[in-house]
Amino acid sequence: MFVAIGLIGATVLAITAARTIPTNTDEKESVVVPETRPSASNGKAIYDEHCLKCHGETGSGEGEDAKKFKNEMKDFNDQTFMRKESPAKFFDKVKKGDKPMPAFEEDLTDQEMWDVVFYVWTFQNKDDLLAQGRQSYDEKCTKCHGASGDGKGPEAGDLEEEPTDFTDLKHMLSNTSNDMFEAITDGEKDEGMPAFKKKLSKGEIWNVVNHIWTFVYED
Ligand code: HEC
Ligand code: HEC
After folding, report:
1. What atom of ligand 1 comes closest to residue 50's alpha carbon?
2. Where do the domains of the chain lie, and which CATH numbers do they carry?
3. Model pTM?
4. What's the pLDDT score for residue 31?
């Protein structure tokens, strides 16, 4: 069953504040939570067939067909750009297009669009940095958020608020790296989320953020 993010309604939006509110009304209508976790490797096959000719092999917009509008293309490796985007925003762009970016709603299923969005998401990853992120997570976060990211760590029951479930697609698809970075850096004291700015460097926090995204999709 597909559930429109827009229909989750006021409760979720109120609890999670600005973090999960999609940026425009149309997007809320088009963004549907996938039934199964998106698969980046399925997404790669779709990307190679439909997207590579413009966005290019490396995702920097160097494709043959994009020569005419080179300066409108974003580089998916550019972290400053990617960190303020959400998977839901990308999904909306792929589904509905935005000239000269074509719409794919006729050619691809919703699940395929999520797969390709998460393949695009992986351009930010560097294997060694991801491994570091995983290490920090395993050392400092699992006791509350759980080893699999499901929010059910051994100390979760002692807290006022439930630790965020990073496998919850509804929540994560509208999340951004910037928002997670901020939550980890400064903490959310009233809710029981500690601040890590004195325990992890900025670089280490970014690596943890990238590791958290891996709870959302399959390789
Ligand atoms: C004909 C060339 C072309 C093809 C094919 C194409 N795109 Fe795009 N795409 C663009 C252009 C140009 C933009 C920037 C325009 C804009 O954002 O309004 C863009 C923007 C995007 C964005 C948003 C980034 C931003 O600029 O905010 C995403 C995500 C995206 N494309 C993904 C895809 C995926 C996934 C596919 C394949 C399923 C695909 N595109 C196929 C040309 C293309
Ligand atoms: C003592 C338990 C505890 C520890 C340890 C902990 N967290 Fe949390 N975390 C929480 C709780 C509880 C929340 C939920 C706060 C809320 O409801 O707003 C949370 C929220 C978050 C959020 C905000 C999620 C969102 O998108 O809304 C992020 C990101 C996060 N934690 C990451 C981490 C990372 C990374 C670590 C390890 C470096 C970590 N947490 C360690 C308890 C913890």
Report:
1. 37
2. 37-124 (1.10.760.10), 127-213 (1.10.760.10)
3. 0.90
4. 81
